[in-house]
């Protein structure tokens, strides 16, 4: 019996899926790392032209083309294509750590895991310096049984709400999140996300949008910097908290713009409509 086949049997019955569009920066590393915890990696590509598809295939992924269906819809394609019931939701800038892979493998050693969903910490990795372990991180529902719960088919949201009667586990080890390779890339990312959410989430009352636009940025920034502990990240921690807060504030501004335009009202009080 070869060492390769023995190692393959140790990998749990999990399918990983990744959405891509021009992701040459990290896709090969992301796929190779995912294959340490999943028996297959499915890349759902919406039209890359930069070599992402070739790099993903060379790294061991199965690539399927799917025109963009929205954040949730695109992930649902990954669920549908998955060979196994258990799936791992990974973004194209998230790298599975060896410790995470070992923890998931141990979870399946005695058969079916006891919970239907497992929360996973995402540790941000700045462009310079060490990963931000212990602060500034988020928790996502990354590992789950698709026969028990599924990603919502929503253009903006790609995280599911857990039913009150569903048992949720928590994984100790993290996935590394290389959220941005510099300020230019991150600002472009939050700008795009803010447009999607301003367009598709439920409208907020104008009164609350006024308050958010006037005061919200400092609340968003303060939560990231002080509550989430990004003050421990030095200068880049400050910059990341600032840009994150700006992204949420921009969502509020864009929602206000859209609502006013839909009502046929000018954004400028002294300007008469045509």
UniProtKB/TrEMBL annotation:
CDD domains: Beta4Glucosyltransferase (cd02511). It holds the Pfam family Glycos_transf_2. InterPro entries: Glyco_trans_2-like (IPR001173), Nucleotide-diphossugar_trans (IPR029044). The keyword Transferase applies. The keyword Membrane applies. Belongs to the glycosyltransferase 2 family. WaaE/KdtX subfamily. This is Glycosyl transferase family 2. It comes from Aquisalinus flavus. The lineage of its organism: Bacteria, Pseudomonadati, Pseudomonadota, Alphaproteobacteria, Parvularculales.
